[in-house]
Amino acid sequence: MGNRHAFRHALLIMMIFAITSQAAFHELKLFTPKAPSVEKRRSSLIALQSSGGAIPEEDHGPKFSAMLGNLRIPSSLFAGASAGAAFAMPIAASDSIKEGFVKRIYSLLMMSSLASQLLVITISTVNMNLIARTVKGEKLATSTTNYIEKFFLLEWTATKFHFFSGVLAFVVGAGLRAWTTIGCPIVARAALGIIASSTALAMTFLNSLWEEGGEVGVLKLPFTYVSLLWKKCRRSVAFALAMIVNVVTALYIIGNIPHVYKYLVS
Fold it and tell me: Where does the pLDDT of residue 4 fall: very low under 50, low under 70, confident under 90, or very high at 90 and above?
């Protein structure tokens, strides 16, 4: 009887998450008014140029610096929270298979969140200082989006990717912790469902706002980031070495999953 109730609760949570995820990937178009598309705005600019009206170029550095600051402040908060929470679930020899896997995944997620948010803080701070030292009028563009595409495309893509992935790792880790540490199974599953639905809703807002602003959406962001990094690695030895270390670390973690499983089941 208990297994049937657990199955029903798990099925209900999966259905809620599926519905909210579907709404996220469809950007809630049935419930929100449609904003003017980026293509229409660009076509209007092209029409303005063809009619002889020149689009004035300006220094959008202060605006871009403010955008970096908008991500740097919450990243600092998440970095502090991740550093404190990374060791909140110590691994013990008496852990069950479920607890052993969850605790190990939780530690990796929190350390990944900390590393991602530190990257956001570093990249944004360095670029904000660079913009502050730039001579006014040296870097001109027709819009903030055009300014980013011309001068800071990799840096902005990296900042967005690591901020989003860091927050996602933190949220998933918090969900796993709630699932295993809350004594009441009903409350634990409810907490997991709340986190899953809020994550899907956050993805909706991010994807919708980024695409309306002419930027890459959530699903395309990792591929764009990898493509830009690959181009950078071909021109910079330091970037290439850093990427090699990242790949080796990922392969090390994946390759040791069977070893961890054998240890837990033995």
Answer: low
